[in-house]
Amino acid sequence: MTARRAAERPRRAGLRGWLAGIRRWARFKLLQLLRAPGGPTFVATGFAVGFFCEMFTLPTYGLAFFLIFPLIYVLRGSLAGALVGFVLGKVVYLPLAYLHSVVGGWVLPTRLSFHLPLIGEEINRMLLLNLKLIVGGMVDGLWIGAVLFIAMRSLLLYLAAQRKERRRLRRRPGAAAEPDIARG
To answer: Which residues form the DUF2062 domain (predicted)?
Structure first.
């Protein structure tokens, strides 16, 4: 775009223009994800890995974030998809925290206790609660990530098929009126 065209274009003022720019940027990034070279499985794998890692990030004080990188490499997923899953996982983490604690209590032995002599009893109880959240978050993150992988892959395949159909109809203007004999 030339400088003259940019000067002629009316500029949106204030917050509305800023929000419109954010919306346009988010839509562009979504289109980039939908058209990723690895396909829907690539993006869905990344999304599931990011969501899985978020389910136990809080009790590990953020260190679980670094687990995203080797998992993406091993499972051949999208880093951008993983970051989207990680951010969306933050939205649903707090409602699921109680479930993580309960599941962690089921998985861990009942007589498990921490007793570090240099710290108080309250901190020992907090360490046990964090361990329950970590273990429960891993278990819940596995099954939620698997469900989200299937859902995200199906959604991306559906959106790709819709896009392909729209492009096919755009190439042949009369294609909507006449049935395709080859497709049956």
So the answer is: 24-163
Residues 141 and 49 sit within 8 Å (Cβ to Cβ)? no
- Do the Cβ atoms of 51 and 88 come closer than 8 Å? yes
Residue 29 to residues 22, 26, 85: CA-CA distances in angstroms?
11, 5, 14
Q: What value, to the nearest 5°, has the Cα angle with vertex 88 and ends 84 and 90?
A: 125
Which among 110, 124, 30 has a CA at the least distance from the CA of 78?
30
Give 128's contacts (C-beta < 8 A, 6+ positions apart).
112, 113, 114
Taking only the tens place, the pLDDT of each residue in 121-160 is 777 777 777 888 888 989 999 999 999 999 999 998 898 8
- Alpha-carbon distances of 127 from 22, 65, 130, 136, 140, rounded to whole Å: 40, 20, 5, 14, 20
For the chain, the distance separating the N- and C-terminal CA atoms, rounded to the nearest angstrom, is 46
Which tokens hold the place of 127?
């360490």
Cβ within 8 Å of residue 20, ≥6 positions away:
12
